[in-house]
Amino acid sequence: MFILLGFNALTISAQDLLTLERTLEIAYENSPSIVQSKLNLLRSRESLNAQRAGLKSKFFLNVSPFTYNNTREYSQDFQEWRNYENMGSSGTFSVVQPIKATDGTLSLVNRFGFQSNSLNNNPAINSFSNNVRLQFDQPIFTYNRTKMNLRELELDLENALLSYAMQKLTIERQVSQLFYQVYQRQQSLFISKEELTNQEKSHEIIKNKVDAGLAAQEELWQAELNLANARSSVYNAQVSLDNAKDQLKQTIGIDLDNDVDVLANVDVKTVDVDMTDAIDYALKQRMELRQREIDIENAQFNLIRVDANNEFKGNVSLAVGLVGDNEQIGNIYQSPTDQQQFEISFEIPVYDWGQKRSNLKAAEASLQMQELNFDNEKISIQLNIREIYRNMQNLVYQIEIAEKSVENARRTYELNVEKYQNGDLTSMDLSLYQNQLSSKRNELTNALISYKLEFLNLKIQTLWDFESNTSIVPSEYSSEFQID
Length: 484
What we know:
By secondary structure, the chain is of the alpha+beta class. Helix content is 57%, strand content 23%.
């Protein structure tokens, strides 16, 4: 069924003429809430990038260009006081590679140095040294912190992207509502001006009749009052329109001093919607459900983290290396010394006065709450879709009634205009028929726009376009978001 509103509201010259599509484009660029969501998305994305960069090899260089030390100490071996003077320089170059699969660390460390030592002001003994070793450290009997941190940041990015996509949908609904509100105010102003024109004609007719002695003076007084009320209605409609424009401009983020008008298409094409299908689409595609799943996964991570407090855990450390020293730098490894190191250590909790047990119960309760939130979200979605579906069915019926009401009111008004011109009707009675026609036309406008907004709401709530029978999952979520 196609319904077209049959009068033009754009009687006001506009500096900026906005369509709904253009208005949404401006809102997506300037809206404060969208800008904030973009910044949150940027924060999450860069945090994940930083974490991934942290899984690559890190290179460190520490340099001590010069050190000097002059001390006097008592030697137990020689039973005497001795003066020690030491000068030197050193540098350490290390490569550290985190291991994501095991949460271990593999390190390659090379330390090169020069020493000049003298005892009791005797000639100094110079030597060069180099120590290179390969070391592996592996936590045991505990969870993989590297993997968990990475996964949490991936979920944070996904959640930020979901929030951004949902914010865009929210902006679309808000802006559409305000856009059509401006259109309604423009329509009301147009109808008020039409009513004023009709009242001016009525006033002129009754004035001529009174001047000719064909009508009582009271008729002219009533016509003047009707004319004043019509002018007041135009003024009130203009004020309402200006206020609605300011709300729209503030929401989409443009200067309040900009003069704008809207060009709206209020063609309504009713579409048969199956409520069961609508609910299925919503449960499969609604991003809030995925957010609740992320909350559950984060709660599970928190439970693992709490369980690791005061846990029995250990660490295995293995290192092999080669040390050389010589007075000549080229002979450092003439007689090298092998180094081997192996260490296994354990951290054994003894008693924590029930702290871990209480923390675990709190974390388990938090997990159960998130699971309940997921179930409640599903129920809320179903209730919302059912309500929207019923509203749309009712609005289709209301539109049909409003169309018939407008046609009946128009015909009635035209008939009574003839009666008024023939002197068979007072100006007060004609004013009532004029107000009735204006009211019915406004009701039709409101019904048409309500249906369009409710249909838009259904698409947003289900993420499904029932006209084209395609998914409208935001492209930012379906294509831009990729986690390797």
